[in-house]
Amino acid sequence: MTNKIIIENLSLQYSDGAESLRGINMGIRKNAVTVLFGPAGGGKSTLLRCLNRLNDLTDIRASSGRILIDDENILDPKTDVIALRRKVGMVFARPVPLPMSIRENVIYGLELAGEKRKSKLDEAVERSLKLSAIWDEVKDRLNDPAIALSGGQQQRVCLARVIALQPEIILLDEPTSGLDPISTGKVEAALLELKKEYTIILVPHSVQQAARTADYAAFFLQGELIEYDEGKTMFTAPKQKKTEDYIMGRFG
Ligand SMILES: Nc1ncnc2c1ncn2[C@@H]1O[C@H](COP(=O)(O)OP(=O)(O)O)[C@@H](O)[C@H]1O
Ligand SMILES: [Mg+2]
Q1: Domain limits of the chain?
Q2: What's the gap in Å between 177 CA and the centre of ligand 2?
Q3: pTM of the full predicted structure?
Q4: Whose C-alpha lies nearest to ligand 1, atom 9?
Q5: Which ligand is closest in space to the CA of residue 174?
Q6: In sequence order, what DSSP letters do the residues of 11-58 get, joined into one string?
Q7: Is any atom of ligand 1 closer than 6 Å to the C-beta of 9?
Q8: Closest-lying ligand 1 atom to the alpha carbon of residue 40
Q9: pLDDT tens for each residue of 190-213
Q10: Domain 3-247 is classified in which CATH homologous superfamily?
């Protein structure tokens, strides 16, 4: 197994003084689901936002360290951030469908990038919706407004919108936090399919979801990476007392 991403000594401090990442070192495997879990405020979202430079938009006092993706330090000022964000797609907690049809939602980014060929766009729509485990539910109504779908369906359409751009890495920040258990199951099933082709990094909405989905799991507490291991080891025999306490529900 190879590392798609290598995080080296990454620290980050927001302008208000909150230190949200402290000396993080981790390698993230290709074709696997890596879960970042732990209580609120641990730095999980901050780390995800570093991976596609979304933090460029926030007030940061200081940051240091490196993030290598395919051996290139993406924190380097010379990085082409647009290209990076295409390679590293992100799905957020609340689905934000655009006020247009299901089909148009999926191909929005591709069209922006200049793709005009209908055959290519149709292909992308079908492939992306299939990979997002929603094709069967929407294939007969692709021209209906995405906003009319249920929350769970909207979230999978948002995932399809990311996939249509053919990223290599997909970041998901609590993508099922507002969803019912059935929709949550469908998103989790989609991740199983997606990891065959992509590198997936998921911030789960619960320890249970972390345990169900993690090939690898990283436990974050107050900006520190406390423990990082294979999911099956982490959730059955954690090595650190803090990890065990959190998994057992003793705090959090
Ligand atoms: N935009 C921001 N500006 C200032 N502080 C922030 C910002 N985003 C997060 N933080 C702070 O950084 C720490 C880590 O937050 P976050 O990365 O959101 O953690 P998590 O996703 O694990 O809940 C927290 O103390 C939080 O208050
Ligand atoms: Mg968060």
Answers
A1: 3-247
A2: 11
A3: 0.95
A4: 46
A5: 2
A6: EEEETTS-EEEEEEEEEEETTSEEEEE-STTSSHHHHHHHHTTGGGGS
A7: no
A8: 23
A9: 999 999 999 999 999 999 999 999
A10: P-loop containing nucleotide triphosphate hydrolases (3.40.50.300)
Compute, in angstroms, the gap from residue 120 CA to the centroid of ligand 2.
35
Q: What dihedral do alpha carbons 228, 92, 74, 226 form, nearest 10°?
A: -20
Task: Classify each residue of 72-110 as buried b or exposed e, where b means 16 or more C-beta atoms within 10 Å of its C-beta.
Answer: eebbeeebeeeebbbbbbbbbbebebeeebbbbbbbbbb
Q: Give the ligand 1 atom nearest the CA of 47.
A: 17
Whether ligand 1 lies within 6 angstroms of the CB of 42 is answered as: yes
Tell me the per-residue pLDDT of 98-149, one tens digit each, with 9 for 90 and over. Answer: 999 999 999 999 999 899 999 999 999 999 999 999 999 999 999 999 999 9
Q: pLDDT tens across 152-192, in order? A: 999 999 999 999 999 999 999 999 998 999 999 999 999 99
